[in-house]
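Risk register update: the risk of archive-format incompatibility is retired. Evidence:
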Amino acid sequence: MDTDEQIFSDAYDQGDLKLNDPDTELLSLLRKAGENTFRKDKRINIRLTSHDLEGIQRKASRKGIPYQSLISGLIHQYVEGELYEMPPVNNSSNRTASTQSS
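Archived output:
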């Protein structure tokens, strides 16, 4: 057990930490996630840079989910319109300003 886990364990054992049942909204989200997980019927292979894969694995670890689930969730959010592309940064105005000052 790491330090944080030990703190929570001790607090629970001493009665300082009370666990609550999850609320209806959380249960609904978990139920929907579970249904989507079991409904998957296609498999893909992709190539990533080591840097990107390690970054995805770190972020998934922080969320407590498998990295494949994080990637799948991001793709799903994008397809459903819940995740948007950032418009490209237009650096032409910066170039113009620096060119004019020269």
